[in-house]
């Protein structure tokens, strides 16, 4: 299964580092073009290569981690996702003032889902700090917990398999309506917790 990353900020880059550490290949893209990612790809080569957003979006599984206000522009004009998996690693807040976005009573994942028509959306990798995503998930002697949620059982199983391959202890929080609310930042009670599963 091919993996793409849209967004090379803290979370996108941390996810890329976790993949590279485990010998998993992926493409990564940002809004400024592949030539601006030479430092990152030099660090993470040969596993991580820089491409355009259109090329990254063509992968079987695509993690999206873009500043909230820039999501519509980043995802506009792409072909229908045609059943491919999108990992929603976004949070409806961004610097420098970290004011929560106005969601009008909706979950952020519901808004993201509207931006990726035809995709099978799984919420994951948004609730941990970037250094915990890229760091050794077994540093404390157990396996760092990584929550995920979604409405498509098969898509969740694929993401759960990747989470396990990266060394994390994946915990399924159920459908997006439930799990998305628990891990959405700000407000979700499970955000920014460094939980470790032993045994």
Topology:
Blueprint lengths: L2 E4 L3 H12 L4 E4 L8 H7 L3 E3 L2 H5 L3 E4 L6 H5 L9 E4 L4 E2 L4 E2 L7 H8 L4 E5 L5 H5 L8 E8 L2 H13 L3 E4 L3 H8 L12 E2 L2
Parallel strand pairs: 1-2, 1-4, 2-3, 4-5, 5-8, 9-10
Antiparallel strand pairs: 6-7, 8-9, 9-11
How would you characterize this protein structure?
By secondary structure, the chain is α/β, with parallel strands linked by helices. It has a single domain, classed as NAD(P)-binding Rossmann-like Domain (Rossmann fold). It is 32% helix and 21% strand. Strands 1, 2, 3, 4, 5, 8, 9, 10 and 11 form a nine-stranded mixed β-sheet that branches.
Look at the structure and give the CATH class.
Answer: Alpha Beta
The SSE string, one letter per element, is: EHEHEHEHEEEHEHEHEHE
Residues in β-strands, percent: 15-25%
Relative helix content: 25-40%
Distance between the termini: 29 Å
* Count of alpha/pi helices: 8
C-alpha-based Rg, rounded: 15 Å
Major sheet? 9 strands, mixed
